[in-house]
Design goal:
The chain has about 850 residues and is α+β, with helices and mostly antiparallel strands. Helix content is about 35%, strand content about 25%. The chain is built from 27 helices and 39 strands. α8 packs antiparallel against α9.
């Protein structure tokens, strides 16, 4: 069967030896009416041949086809972004199947939505091979001299047929530029259209007369850059013109209407937005983490009392636009795989394969040159490559800890530093396919949302101390204190989670290490978690950059205290005299220290300043906020705060009132505490209790303890929506099984509440992880958290009652580890908490 197809114009058919099934045909034209000139005969011929015709309609221009009878019109909203647009068209093509015929609106119109030539080239690269694979014929148009040379080159490389169509004083000329796998001695001469015929113009005189007025497109800027140049000129224009371009740049850099965008509109000027663009790598939006950091700094900068400018460390970050991410996917032929992964059946099935492909792809030479310039700018200063997706750090979706952030020690030759940087970018891109991130998006109904990954590239805050680089202090700050440990806590004063060194230990649960929790209403008051063992419940190791090893690492704080850090170390630590004495008795060199930050909190205004910063930011957001920061000191104890991140803090349960039951009416109390809970004011019925028996658990092997964790995950899935709570001893989510049960967060997220109970005999203790990524997951998922310090004053826990109840585990799982895990029907049980009285109780009334 012949694969030849007519254009509907016999003269053009002879000039290019007809079309072939699989051809993508791109016409460069001056006007839409010129495009219509060659579309109309193509449509007539296709309909006469009984072809299925599809008109892909997305432009703001008049329809290319006037008479739509018998043609399937598929309207696609290009304003929803590249991924939506390309995926929707992919689905249309998939459904249409083999040998369908297409007419696309003028591709140049996509500039009105995307402001990027690069993304038009990407769309063509991902769409045309699929059309070719299905033996279709598709017509496209570009307005001449509207696109960069690179875009035209990418389209030429991808398409099968590329033709120029000229209209000179009413005479039409067709000039074939590329006709794949066809050739004749006159094919690439211009041809004059006379009716449906085409006369070859081979004489040099006639050709020079025709083309003499045209010039080569050798240096046209991307439409993105043209738009920003126009915005820059608007700085000298009227207020109205400046506001117009400000709104446009807000949309291009930050996205569509949202609560965050409205805040940015209030605090950013046009000049601010142009300054952001000057530090952007590639094109496209800069993502949630970058927006949050920049907005927070602008809010503090515009403080009416001018309190914060003297103590804020300047930043010199770069922002990698989301278009770089898409281009990387397209360049490395991952788009088809990504399209499969975005389906319901392929969501997890193709994730690992796509992750591996993202880890091993290549960047274009032009992009690598931009990477080199960034690395030359930073010299050998350590940097961090951080995720900044479009959905990240926004109201309702923090994505805390779901995507990677990668430190680059940035040592070695320029080639080695570039290779490390590229690997860091690849690692962050690949983390979009991490199981936790996929689960997070699925649980929040975000599977169909475009998760476009921009990047934030920051200089690591700190200084060199021998072979080490680190800040003196880092931490997390929350403007609302959702975790309360006694009746004196003011939930509106805010809190800090402080560590010595890099902030990774402030945002992650580290087994055996504890950050310092600071209540900003009374900074020197310590949490009631140490039970007299202050050293055990403090920080023992610090995270840092080891420049000699060219890697992120950790180091003993006791040993680091022997290093001259050009500042007063007693701000952060005090000597542990008893442990120091024991070390000497055992012949171990060096002293021991306890990281408590007491002198810092007692003798400087740091806590007051952090409280003011949090209050200012939460006031501007009109919502509680969560920040990450670093702090560096000089020899006179003056400090500078480097604000790294700011996002809305989810606060379920605050503002509600709960009537606590009168204790005289309580028939049975399973547990009660004063403080040490998180989740606000709640009143839940409790139909099931999942309880891990501590003595039986500790007898298990390491492998079986992980088996218990996986079984908890199965129960978590099967008890979803059944008003279940989870009780265990020690930590949930630990990686050290001697400290608790090593579940992943997704294995407990459907529980209404989780409780960590102390067990002093086995040295199992809760870990007050307020401010960590684990905490963020709990709050966003609406999971109530309680720490039960069994044996403490004002604490009651009846573990024997749980052990004595009938086990219904086999109703919800295969029953493995039923000697360790109990599922208890708890009809009539209710959970109450009240942040005003600091009471929590689980009772039958």
């Amino acid at each position: 069967m012949s694969r030849e197809v007519s254009t509907g114009m016999p003269g053009i058919d002879r000039a290019i030896d007809k079309l072939r099934l699989g051809d993508n045909v791109v016409w460069q034209v001056d006007t839409l009416s010129d495009y219509r000139k060659i579309v109309e005969p193509y449509v007539r011929q296709a309909m006469a041949d009984g072809r299925e015709l599809y008109y892909i309609r997305f432009g703001t221009h008049d329809p290319v086809i006037r008479n739509l009878e018998g043609i399937r019109v598929c309207e696609v909203d290009a304003s929803r972004g590249f991924e939506y647009f390309a995926t929707k068209i992919h689905r249309i093509i998939e459904k249409a199947g083999l040998e369908a015929f297409y007419i696309f609106d003028c591709l140049t119109d996509l500039l009105k939505y995307w402001y990027s030539d690069l993304m038009i080239g990407n769309f063509f690269r991902v769409t045309c091979p699929y059309l070719f694979e299905l033996d279709t014929i598709a017509y496209f148009a570009l307005i001449r001299d509207s696109h960069t040379t690179e875009t035209i080159s990418r389209i030429r490389d991808t398409t099968q047929v590329l033709l120029d169509l000229y209209n000179e004083s009413g005479n039409y000329y067709v000039h074939p530029l590329k006709v794949w796998e066809r050739y004749s001695p006159t094919m690439f001469f211009p041809h004059k259209l006379v009716g449906d015929e085409a006369e070859c113009i081979s004489a040099s005189f006639d050709a020079s007369v025709l083309f003499g007025r045209f010039t080569l497109n050798t240096g046209r800027l991307d439409y993105w850059d043209i738009t920003f140049e126009e915005a820059n000129r608007a700085l000298a224009g009227s207020t109205e013109e400046k506001e117009k371009y400000k709104d446009l740049l807000l949309e291009l850099l930050l996205g569509k209407e949202s609560r965050m965008l409205n805040l940015c509109r209030h605090y950013f000027s046009l000049r601010d937005l142009l300054n952001i663009k000057r530090r952007e790598i590639g094109t496209g939006m800069i993502g949630g983490k970058s927006i949050g950091m920049l907005l927070a700094r602008k809010i503090l900068e515009r403080d009416p009392k001018k309190r914060f400018a003297p103590i804020l460390e300047m930043h010199d970050s770069f922002y990698m636009g989301v278009d770089v991410y898409y281009t990387y996917i397209v360049l490395n032929n991952c788009w088809t795989l990504r399209t499969k992964q975005k389906t319901e059946e392929g969501y997890y099935k193709y994730a690992d394969e796509l992750r591996e492909r993202l880890l091993t792809g290549e960047f274009s030479e032009a992009m690598k040159e931009q990477f080199r310039q960034v690395l030359e700018y930073y010299g050998q200063s350590p940097i961090i490559v951080r995720s900044s997706s479009l959905l990240e750090d926004n109201f309702g979706n923090a994505f805390a800890g779901k995507y990677d952030s990668v430190f680059c020690a940035n040592q070695g030759t320029p080639e080695e530093r570039l290779a490390d940087f590229i690997h860091a970018v690849q690692q962050v891109y690949a983390s979009t396919m991490n199981r936790d991130a996929l689960q997070y998006r699925q649980d929040r109904g975000l599977m169909d949302r475009d998760e476009q990954m921009a990047l934030l590239i920051q200089r690591v805050s700190g200084d060199h101390y021998g072979d080490f680089f680190f800040p003196h202090m880092a931490g997390v700050g929350n403007s609302a204190n959702l975790y309360v440990w006694d009746e004196h806590t003011d939930v509106n004063a805010g809190m800090l989670r402080l560590v010595f060194g890099l902030g990774t230990r402030a945002v992650d649960r580290i087994d055996g290490d504890y950050p310092r929790i600071v209540n900003l209403d009374d900074p020197c008051r310590e949490p009631l978690i140490s039970n007299g063992d202050e050293r055990k419940f403090s920080q023992h190791y610090m995270d840092l950059i080891n420049t000699k090893l060219n890697a992120w690492s950790h180091y003993s704080i006791d040993r680091m205290m022997e290093t001259d850090m050009h500042m007063d170390k007693s701000l952060f630590v005090r000597k542990d005299w008893n442990t120091s004495k024991r070390k000497r008795e055992l012949g171990i060199p060096g002293d021991a220290y306890i990281v408590d930050f007491q002198k810092l909190l007692r003798e400087t205004n740091f806590a007051d300043m952090m409280k003011a910063i949090l209050k200012r930011l939460s006031g501007a957001y009109d919502y509680p906020v969560d920040i990450e920061f670093c702090v560096n000191f000089d020899e006179k104890n003056n400090y500078r705060i480097n604000l790294l991140q700011c996002r809305p803090l989810q606060t379920r349960g605050l503002g509600k009132t709960v009537e606590m039951p009168d204790e005289k009416n309580v028939k049975y109390c399973l547990m009660s505490t004063r403080g040490n809970f998180m989740g606000g004011n709640v009143h839940y019925k409790v139909d099931y209790i999942v309880y891990v028996k501590v003595r039986e658990y500790l007898k298990l092997s390491e492998q079986d303890r992980y088996g218990v964790a996986r079984q908890i995950g199965e129960l978590n899935r099967n008890l979803k929506g059944k008003h279940a709570i989870l009780i265990g001893h020690g930590r949930w989510g630990t990686t050290t099984t001697s400290l608790g049960v090593p579940v992943n967060f997704t294995e407990l997220m459907h529980m209404q509440a989780i409780f960590e109970v102390s067990y002093t005999e086995g040295h199992l203790m809760p870990e007050l992880s307020y401010g960590s990524h684990f905490f963020q997951d709990l709050v966003e998922s609406g999971v109530f958290y309680g720490a039960v310090f069994d044996g403490d004053e004002n604490v009651h826990f009846d573990g024997e009652y749980l052990r004595s109840q009938e086990n219904h585990m086999q109703e919800f799982s295969d029953g493995r580890y039923s000697e360790v895990i109990q599922v208890i029907r708890s009809e009539g049980m209710e959970l109450y908490s009240d942040t005003v009285t600091q009471k929590m109780m689980c009772v039958i009334v």
